Amino acid sequence: MKKNTKLNAEASGLSGELLRLFVVEAINRAGKLTEAEGSTIIEAHHLQQILPQLLLDFS
């Protein structure tokens, strides 16, 4: 990446929106897994279980 490479406002906004959607989707998937296990609290291992497929879906 060149030192003078810049990100315009639209690209920055779209990157932020993509990150927001990624986090919302991660929470939704982890929440479904948590409920399926009969729990009400999302823990780190729930996120670890959904992360591989989530990363594939967002690539």
TrEMBL record:
Native source organism of the sequence: Acanthamoeba castellanii (strain ATCC 30010 / Neff)
Major subcellular site: nucleus
DNA damage among keywords: yes
Keywords annotated in UniProt: DNA damage, DNA repair, DNA-binding, Nucleus
GO cellular component, one term: FANCM-MHF complex
One annotated GO biological process: resolution of meiotic recombination intermediates
Taxon lineage: Eukaryota, Amoebozoa, Discosea, Longamoebia, Centramoebida
Keyword DNA damage belongs to the record: yes
Annotated localization: Nucleus
Pfam families: CENP-X
Protein name: Centromere protein X
Source superkingdom: Eukaryota
Listed transmembrane segments: none
Record GO terms (molecular function): DNA binding
Family according to the record: Belongs to the CENP-X/MHF2 family.
